[in-house]
């Protein structure tokens, strides 16, 4: 079994003490973008168990995992939520069941940034209440 690649990159640091930069260097060197990629590298003995766990934690917490996994994308290159809010359109218009509805940008109590819409629409002759949240992916992680 070859020595794990991280020992060449990190120079004898304990995997649990690796910082995000070292973990990202390992991910870049091994072309690891998803947990599935990390599993393959672990199976091929290029990562030891502790490195695998540290990298999976890093991927789960990082925007690069979110981006490559296709589920979430980091918010555009804004440093703060205030900058993002200033850049978003103040109001958007949605057409739902033939009804034009407007929503303004806001910061949610969760810390995410986006839009909220609450209205009533008629669908199939029945009056229905509509609640919709549109959240900028990755905005919750931005600084205040």
Describe this structure in words.
Mean pLDDT is 76; it is low at 5-17. The protein is elongated, with a radius of gyration of 22 Å. The chain has six helices and four strands. The chain has helices at residues 5-10, 20-29, 35-43, 49-61, 63-69, 81-87; strands spanning 91-96, 99-107, 113-123, 126-135. A four-stranded antiparallel sheet has the order 1-2-3-4. The longest helix has 13 residues, at 49-61. The protein is of the alpha+beta class and 144 residues long.
Produce a short descriptive summary.
The protein is α+β, with helices and mostly antiparallel strands and 144 residues long. Helices cover 36% and strands 25% of the residues. Helix 3 runs antiparallel to helix 4 and helix 4 crosses helix 5.
Q: Helix content range of the residues, please? A: 25-40%
| H/E topology pattern | HHHHHHEEEE
Widest sheet, order of strands: 1-2-3-4
The number of distinct helices, counting runs of at least 4 residues, comes to 6
**Shape annotation:** elongated
**N- to C-terminal distance:** 47 Å
Q: Detail the poorly predicted runs.
A: 5-17
The radius of gyration over CA amounts to: 22 Å
Q: Tally of extended strands?
A: 4
- Give the number of domains: 2
Main structural class: alpha+beta
Major β-sheet annotation: 4 strands, antiparallel
Q: What percent strand?
A: 25-35%
Average of pLDDT = 76
Features of this protein?
elongated, 144 residues, alpha+beta, 36% helix, 2 domains
